[in-house]
Design goal:
Oligomer: single chain
Number of strands: 5
Radius of gyration: 49 Å
Number of helices: 21
Strand order of the largest sheet: 3-2-1-4-5
Structural class: mainly alpha
Largest sheet: 5 strands, mixed
Distance between the termini: 73 Å
Length: about 650
């Protein structure tokens, strides 16, 4: 690094930066004007822009020939064959003109983000050259060191800039990713449209627009297919582009005196020889001949030939259109690629909105079952109370004990209308479903209208997808909503908000009854009642004895009255006490088991209710919302 700073020439670097920036600015401003100018303007700009590329290339060829010549010990056929420069000069002349012509069109349509990377190549090349030159200067002759440093710097700069181009340029930009080749070519060609009268420039614009659109579409497909392959293709293309850019800007790094070697005979010397007048004359004559008798006439002839052969122009345009007509066939109509996918996304969006309302239904359902489970303790508190006990005795006396106990359990489970919010949620779900179905149909019609394609006459179509129109237009339908409509008939209107609560509570009560809990409880009550009667008689006897003792202070009738009153009081007091103790004993032994069986019945009903909502009714199933879609590519002539 210190040696690089030691060899740093401020004036030389400043000139390099100024000339290189001017060269790219030349392409930036004038390249944008070519599509709207005449042919002579394009020829002049191309020739001037290609000069740096050409001079850098022929200087490299000259140094390579000098190096080869130094390996021969005498002049001969091989020396003459390997040291001739004329063929290489002609090749690089043709390459620099052709590549510059295309490069100007490309740079003229490049985006600002890409231009930032292009201008960054100037300082990057200078830094890399400053690193390589001291290394080469220690090993090679001065002019060979310049050549080697330039050659290494071009390749390293091309690699570095290609990596920077991949990293910092947004190749996944949605505005540059296209669903079809037709769209890609159309959008990219718009950037190259112009008002020139030159048919050659117009066709070049269309050709480059076609190539750029093809590139964008292909890269987009590669990106979705394989990311590494996609990046590899971009890297190779960027290497070719930035190598030629580095070749052009490297010409401004070569000392001006070194270019004398290009016009002089092959000579291995540290200092380039002076250019003879004869060499200047030959160079001037050759340049004049090339410009006036080859470059300009050949280009004008091509333009005139295209203009005089409209059939050729029409074939070029037709061939481009033939490749790019890519469509989807939905029903019997043609649509832009991606239309079916757009409708499918709208379908999924509608289902997502339905799912939101269904999630609310699930939440209220869980809450309803939890509140019903909380009501079980209230029922058991009543069940193991003295009023509850005597109510059951009355029901036993009237012969309706089992039905009455089931009805009492059902009433407690329904306490607070625990499934009222569920009823409201179901009604909301069905209302939302009707609204979303109508909105979805409107959205589908809008998408179809916006993407319908009328194929051009004599165009060849590439159908990338076939889809059923009726399947795509089918409104979204969730299985749970279908079940609600077809099995529960909620949309027809269940009148009371407690209808669902009563139905579910009745099913739970039936489950509890099915477990035999209510029946066993009734049988136990019958058995216990007999025991309670004995205890009541004992209580009455003890009460009577107490009453007689209290009434003995009144001779005769006092003893009898006291015994009667004492029997009543004693029977009630001791009977209630015994009843309460027996209930407490029964609660201690059976309440938890009774509660567990009721909660199990509630949980079973909760699972069945969710299954009931989610299981389709086979006889009422609606058609699938989409049919199997065949996706393939084919080239077929349009038929009407």
């Amino acid at each position: 690094m210190f040696s690089a700073l030691k060899n740093f020439n401020f004036v030389r670097i400043l000139c390099y930066l100024a000339f290189s920036a001017s060269w790219l600015a030349f392409a930036y401003f004038l390249g944008r004007l070519i599509p709207n100018e005449q042919l002579w303007f394009a020829l002049l700009v191309t020739f001037l822009f290609g000069l740096p590329i050409y001079f850098a290339a022929i200087y490299a060829v000259t140094i390579q020939r000098i190096h080869l010549a130094s390996q021969f010990k005498k002049l001969g056929i091989l020396h003459w064959l390997f040291t001739r420069r004329i063929l290489a000069y002609i090749w690089w002349l043709l390459w620099s003109v052709a590549f510059s012509f295309l490069l100007l069109f490309y740079l003229g349509s490049a985006e600002k983000q890409e231009w930032t990377i292009f201008f960054t190549a100037i300082p990057v090349f200078a830094i890399i050259y400053a690193i390589f030159f001291p290394i080469a200067a220690r090993e090679y002759k001065p002019y060979i060191a310049v050549h080697k440093s330039l050659a290494w710097s071009r390749w390293v700069t091309a690699l570095v800039m290609a990596v920077l181009f991949i990293v910092f340029v947004n190749h996944a930009d949605a505005s540059r990713q296209y669903a079809s080749l037709a769209e890609a070519v159309a959008m990219e060609s718009q950037k190259l449209d112009g008002t020139t009268n030159s048919i050659l420039i117009l066709e070049t614009n269309r050709l480059l627009g076609f190539i750029e659109g093809l590139k964008r579409y292909a890269l987009g497909s590669l990106h979705s297919f394989n990311t590494m392959f996609y990046l590899g293709v971009i890297l190779l293309g960027s290497l070719l582009f930035f190598y030629n850019v580095a070749l052009g800007i490297s010409s401004f790094m070569v000392p001006l005196s070194e270019y004398r070697r290009v016009f002089s005979p092959i000579q291995d010397s540290d200092h380039p020889p002076a250019v003879s007048p004869w060499a200047w004359a030959i160079t001037t004559a050759f340049t004049t001949f090339f410009v006036l008798f080859i470059y300009v006439p050949s280009t004008v002839y091509v333009d005139a030939w295209l203009r005089s052969n409209p059939k050729t122009v029409k074939e070029i345009r037709t061939s481009q259109q033939t490749v790019i007509e890519t469509v989807e066939m939905i029903g019997d109509e043609y649509y832009k690629p991606g239309t079916a996918e757009h409708i499918e996304r709208a379908y999924l969006d509608s289902l997502s909105k339905l799912e939101t309302s269904l999630e609310k239904l699930r939440e209220t359902t869980d809450t309803g079952f939890k509140q019903m489970a909380e009501n079980v303790d209230d029922y058991l508190d009543w069940y193991y109370s003295l009023p509850g006990e005597y109510e059951r005795i009355v029901a036993l006396a009237t012969g309706v004990l089992e039905n009455w106990m089931a009805e009492k359990l059902q009433n407690y489970l329904m306490k607070g209308n625990v499934f009222g919010p569920v009823q409201q949620s179901i009604e909301n779900v069905l209302q939302n479903n009707q609204q979303l179905r109508a909105e979805h149909l409107q959205k589908v019609e809008q998408i179809l209208a916006e993407n319908r394609v009328e194929p051009a006459d004599n165009s060849q179509l590439e159908i990338v997808r076939h889809a059923s129109l009726s399947a795509l237009k089918e409104p979204p339908a969730h299985s749970m909503i279908v079940n609600l409509e077809n099995r529960m008939l909620i949309s027809g209107g269940i009148g009371t908000a407690g209808a669902i609560t009563g139905a579910i509570a009745g099913k739970i009560t039936a489950k509890v009854a099915g477990k035999g809990v209510i029946k066993l409880g009734a049988q136990a009550l019958i058995k216990v009642t007999a025991g309670k009667a004995v205890s009541a008689l004992g209580g009455a006897a003890a009460g009577a004895a107490t009453g007689m003792a209290l009434g003995s202070v009144i001779p005769g009738i006092g003893t009898a009255i006291g015994a009667a009153i004492g029997g009543i009081i004693g029977g009630i007091t001791i009977g209630l006490t015994v009843e309460k103790l027996l209930l407490m004993l029964e609660e201690a032994f059976s309440r938890d088991d009774f509660k567990r069986q009721i909660l199990e019945a509630i949980e079973e009903e909760r699972v069945e209710f969710e299954k009931f909502l989610n299981t389709p009714v086979v006889s009422d199933m609606i058609p699938a919302s989409d049919s199997e879609v065949e996706t393939f590519s084919e080239n077929s002539e349009q038929t009407n």
